[in-house]
Amino acid sequence: MTELTAPKSSITSSEFADELREQLKYTQGVTVEQATAADVYVAAATAVRRHLMDSWMTTQQDMINGNTKAVGYLSAEFLMGKQLRNALLNAGLTEQFDEAVESLGFDVQDVVDAEYEPGLGNGGLGRLAACFIDSLASLGVPAFGYGIQYKYGIFRQEFDEDGKQVERPDYWLSNEDPWGHIDYGRSQRVNFGGEVVEENGKRVWKPAWAVRAVPVDYMVPGYASGRVNTLRLWQAKSYDEFDLLAFNKSEYMKAVEPQVKAENISKILYPEDSTEVGKELRLEQQYFFTCASIHDAIRVFYPGQDKPDLTTFPDKITFQLNDTHPVIGIPELMRVLIDEYGYDWDTAWTITNKTFNYTCHTLLPEALEVWSAKLIGKLLPRHLEIIKKINEQFMAELTGLTDDAEKIERMRIVTDGKEPAVRMAYLATYAGSHVNGVAELHSQLLKDVTLRDFSDLYDKKFTNVTNGVTPRRFIKLANPRLSNLITEGLGTDKWLEDLDMLEGLVPLAQDDEFVKKFAQVKMDNKIGFSNFAKRNFNIDVDPNTMYNTMIKRLHEYKRQSLKILELIADYADVKAGKLDIDKVTPRTVIFGAKAAPGYYLAKMTIQLINNVAKVVNNDPDIKGKLNVVFVPNYNIRVAQHLIPATELDEQISQAGKEASGTSNMKFALNGALTVGTLDGANVEIRARVGADNFFLFGMTVDEVEAMYANGYDPRKYYESDPRLKGAIDMVASGVFSNGDEDTYEPLVHDWLNKDWFMTLADFTAYHDVQSQIETLYGDQLEWNRKALLNVANSGYFSSDRSIEDYLERIWKTGPMA
Ligand code: T68
Question: Which parts of the sequence carry N6-(pyridoxal phosphate)lysine (predicted)?
Fold first, then answer.
């Protein structure tokens, strides 16, 4: 095997400038004088790719020739963020780039800004996939990320003059994408529809139409590992097969219909988060990328072999199913093994069972995918047969495991009745080797509630892997000031490869001088964000206010309502003369959130927040002390600027609803204090940073359950807390809708009559903890000491640690030799 060195490039800035000139000339066809910042960006991207090319090729060779099992991370979403800075960091070219760009007469920021951020994910799930492939490469583990290259990513969010969310298409591929390499020669055929017939005693699928899956390869460079893995995103192309009959009749439009249909498959990312979408196109997408990926893995690991020995497949690669979206891959592998390679059912089952593992990311029952059997039968008739047979086998197995007939009935993968449906989470749980949740509490609740029957009978399958985030992007790139201070404090920069080393900062929290430096970093980051917000959104943010941030998808369970009601209550108190504005800690509450386009109450919440901002920010009685900012189109770039500047982070979901959360980890690592409930990974963050350094409030999971059981009446809380009543009445009376009492009626009605996630029940506790926050904030040295302890004790939340847990508990593989 080839000797590997960490990619610390030895080339000089002027050599790199020469490479940029060369790329400008031979790739873009422009002189330096003609070039725009966007040209320089493309030139730089192309140059960095060239630097990574040898490591990429060596990594692929070693993966195929070596004996280390690879990981195939199957995910419908990869929310990568911009690539240039990350690629430069991992290629060891950051300084050379900065100097070269300046020497060519360009502004470094302009060049970096020219990159358009791809939004190929909805939120935490997609970003987790991106962190995981970064860590896999950094740990030197052979891995593929497999997904879809959507033409349109998550919609671009704007606000209209009424403060309502407007969704604009995000045609990111209309710009040059210098990172993706389209490999037409390695495309795969993906079939759909048709029927299954009996031929010579065999079931044979006769598909009705097909699409061509073309791989677009992205390099995934590891940090200081010398390894470069591959993210392979599939693009749907039509086969050039015309319907000749239709064409001859001059029905041209009809003749190209299948082509249009085929290319629609990778056209758009579904902008849904945690809600069920029962769309045919979505199932087509899921099958499209899992089918192509499975065939691709066989091609990669058994090159040129007509009759490969696929009993060794689970030793070559292990597939991780990122939520239920790729679960259709299970019957697909069965089909491939039986129909295409002639294995018997039991052999195929053993291989399939060993190959797949499933990660669940939710606790909301409505987010667990269920497909109608009819639809599966229409699109994938052979797969439906296989799923039914798996279900039969499962039912028979269960009969041997338990006498509880009701339980067996509850566990059906294919439901009974008039309109049978396939429960993808159950299929994944039964067919794969392991099932994991994404935080300790979540994994426990999966076992106790969501997949209770399964954990009773298959306890060994269940495990936990707490999520993590990559310190390269979310500390080193996002927060260079803090990174430098950490390196100064620890005397080394090795912490970027071993984040547990942050613990070395614990003693420095007692060193007032160091804490003051830390406070200065935060202040500089606040000023940085203020400039960023002004430059990009023309929003004014005063760095002399506390930055209090809530960034995540807009969802009722996450309870942005709780945050805005608390703020409104303060505002109402000031207006009523019950609160002296001069005694209030100056604060800027910063929101970033997209709502699913069809999610009515979520969109109304955005409208309310925007209008609260309008009223409160402009009320002279407030004297600029309470400010609300809604940053439009929240994305990775905004996160990278906002998280390092934040002092107080909101993680206030109803206990038992947020599977993990990952921004909570990013905030703690960047020295924000968290106000949060005992939910998701908050529990583990609090345990590590210490209860004294975390603002806890609200009901526990048990209390929430008890309240559901006893009947929850939100009105009781409305009547008993005058602040809460005042806030809701203010919304209802039209203060934030120019006097119109109808605008927010549906929201108000929901709060008072349903409030499924118990925002009102937690309101008083939330207010009480805010008082503690204000008191502590008054003592800046103490506040910053606690914030520094958050940094020092959060090393556990590196995605490197998560990947190590997956390697040990699930994948049973490791770095390449
Ligand atoms: C999130 N889930 C969890 N789902 O909500 C969050 N996309 O607690 C957790 O930290 C994170 O996953 C990582 O584990 C999502 O982000 C989606 O984005 C989603 C759901 C359905 C369909 C598409």
Answer: 666
> Quick one: tokens of 177?
């994408």
Residue 362 CA, ligand 1 centroid: distance in Å: 7
- Check for a shared fold between 66-82+117-465 and 526-768: yes
CATH code for the part of the protein at 66-82+117-465: 3.40.50.2000
pTM for this model (two decimals): 0.97
Segments making up each domain of the chain, as ranges: 1-65+83-116, 66-82+117-465, 526-768
The ranges of the chain with pLDDT < 70 are 1-8, 240-247, 274
**pLDDT at position 1, please?**
37
User: How remote is the CA of residue 277 from the centroid of ligand 1, in Å?
Assistant: 14
The CB-side HSE value for 764 (13 A sphere, CA atoms) comes to: 10
Helical (H) or strand (E) element with 357: strand 356-359
Residue-wise pLDDT tens digits, 348-388: 999 999 999 999 999 988 889 999 999 999 999 999 999 99
Q: What is the 8-class DSSP label of residue 73?
A: E
Ligand 1 nearest atom to the CA of residue 658, by list position: 8
What would be the CATH architecture of the domain defined by 526-768? 3-Layer(aba) Sandwich (3.40)
Mutate to test the pocket of ligand 1, among 78, 269, 273 (most ligand atoms within 8 A of CB): 273
Q: Which two tokens stand for residue 191?
A: 């079939």
Task: Give me ligand 1 centre to Cα 274, in Å.
Answer: 7
Residues serving a catalytic function are 361, 552-553, 558, 662, 666
ipTM of this complex prediction, to 2 decimal places: 0.99
pLDDT tens per residue, range 686-708: 999 999 999 999 999 999 999 99
Cα-to-centroid distance, 640 and ligand 1 (Å): 19
Residue nearest atom 10 in ligand 1 by C-alpha distance: 661
Burial profile 370-406: b = 16 or more Cβ within 10 angstroms, e = fewer: bbbbebbbbbbbbbbbbbbebbebbeeebeeeeeeee
Mutate which of 79, 150, 361, 662 for ligand 1? The one with the most ligand atoms within 8 Å of its CB, which is 361
Calpha distance 572→566 (Å, rounded): 10
Ligand 1 shell residues, CB under 6 Å: 122-125, 128, 272-274, 361, 367, 438, 467, 658-662, 680
Q: What is the pLDDT of residue 2?
A: 38
